[in-house]
Amino acid sequence: MRLRGYYANPHRESSAIYRNHIDAIFAGGKEGIWIELPKYINKKDFNGKYILIEGELSEFRGHMGAYCCGLKNITRIEKYGSQLY
Fold first, then answer.
1. Are 71 and 32 a contacting pair, CB within 8 Å?
2. Which phi and psi (to 5°) does residue 12 adopt?
3. Measured distance CA(46)–CA(27) in Å, rounded
4. Helix, strand, or coil here: 21?
5. Taking phi first (over 0 means left), then psi (-120 to 50 degrees means alpha), and beta for anything else, what does residue 68 get?
6. What confidence tens digit (pLDDT) does each residue in 31-68 have?
7. Secondary structure (3-state) at 52
8. Mind spelling out the 3-state secondary structure of 53-72?
9. How far is CA 39 from CA 43, 60, 61, in A?
10. How many other C-beta atoms lie within 10 A of the C-beta of residue 66?
11. Exposed, middle or buried, 74 (CB in 10 Å: 0-12/13-18/19+)?
12. Which of 79, 78, 38 lies closest to 15, judged by CA?
């Protein structure tokens, strides 16, 4: 699955992609997709950025089931488009 959106990782238990930065701030997990990044990827490089990401859809819903679904076995991640925020 390929997704474009806003990546937010404010703390260890919340690594997710959202439609936009507003959803990341106000909607919380219910509007996000949990992202399980490989350990070799530095989350700080993508935090607060719009990204393009590819991986396998997962039933795992993140920390305490807070998200609608998950994305695992990431094969591609890169910054996407203009970074307005």
1. no
2. -55, -40
3. 20
4. helix
5. alpha
6. 889 998 888 988 889 999 999 999 999 888 877 777 88
7. strand
8. EEEEEECCCCHHHCCCCEEE
9. 9, 18, 19
10. 15
11. middle
12. 38
How far, in Å, CA of 34 to CA of 62, rounded? 5
Give the predicted TM-score (pTM) of the model. 0.84
Which residues are within 8 A (CB) of 21 and not within 5 positions of it... i.e. 6 or more apart?
6, 8, 48, 85
Q: In the structure, what pLDDT confidence band is assigned to residue 84 with cuts at 50, 70 and 90?
A: low
Asked whether residue 12 carries a pLDDT value surpassing 80, the answer given is no
Whether 50 and 40 have beta carbons less than 8 Å apart is answered as: no
For residue 85, what are its two tokens? 């925020």
- Between CA 9 and CA 13, with CA 11 as vertex, the angle to 5 degrees is 95
Query: Which pLDDT score, from 0 to 100, does residue 3 have?
Result: 93
Q: How far is CA 3 from the centre of its chain?
A: 9
